[in-house]
Amino acid sequence: MTGGTAPPAVGQPRLGIGIEIGGTKLQAALVTHEGTVLDRRTDRVDPAAGATGIRTALATLLDALLDAAGASGRRPAAVGIGFGGPVDRSRGVVATSFHVGGWGQFPLAEWVADRVRGPLGAVPCLLENDSNAAALAEATAGAGRGSRVVFYTNAGSGIGAGLVIDGRLYCGRPPGEMELGHLRLTPGGGILEEMASGWAVDRQVQEEVSRAPAGVLAREAAKTGSSPSARHLAAALAEGDGPARAILARAAGAYAHAISHAVHLLNPDVIVLGGGLAAIGEPWRMTVADRLEPLLMAPLRPAPAVRLASLGADVVPVGAAIAALTDCEPARSGS
What we know:
5-stranded mixed beta sheet; 39% helix
């Protein structure tokens, strides 16, 4: 983290800025310490523009957000960044991005601190992996709220995970930790992301539409006028489509297999499912939960509760802001 701590205005809750830099989405939001989003600015990530293009777009979002905050008398005390890839949080440096070139070893926390210094002064800026940020958000303000040990995992453009214990993120050796999507489910086999990420399911849906151009999935894609993808699964499942159920079962089965390893190692109180595939809803949650149960050793059954993430598109900026605000809290004196 870089910078110092700015006190909140009298009568206001502690406020932070939460930033999300993902594989497809760019966000900046003004967030309270309890996880309420007061304002947000969003844009799409253009991979072709590289890291430089993303930073240009982010600068525009931050300027607009800070202008609005200043006009309403709101003063953020810290900035948190949830980045879609491994990071070294101790140095505020991006290790790499699996989606967009040009990020390797970039000092992102320092860059953001410089961008906000004009309107805010020297406030703390914390860089965190986006899955970790989402895990903290869901554990403290979402579906895991009230549980002591929360394991969060998101299946979208990639598959990540995060662990929260007693309201604090588990942080391993930098860069990165809890890379669930890179587990190999068999020795020498492919990684989980090749079987259960959003793009892996997109590929399976596209293959099915090519095989059955008059099928339910093809019809659902045609209704939206968009390329066949995982987003069409929910509607096809609601119609009881067999191929859609088979795609769901394959992806959820591989996902549950990977999660079973996490349960055997961590035995959390609750498992929270986020990311784009969680938008499928109850069929996704139920299939993952059903496949997980028989994979666990008898003493660990019944399995931890499996819940759908509840914070939606706000999850990463909320978690990033909470992480930054928590990290810069003044030390409490003992009694």
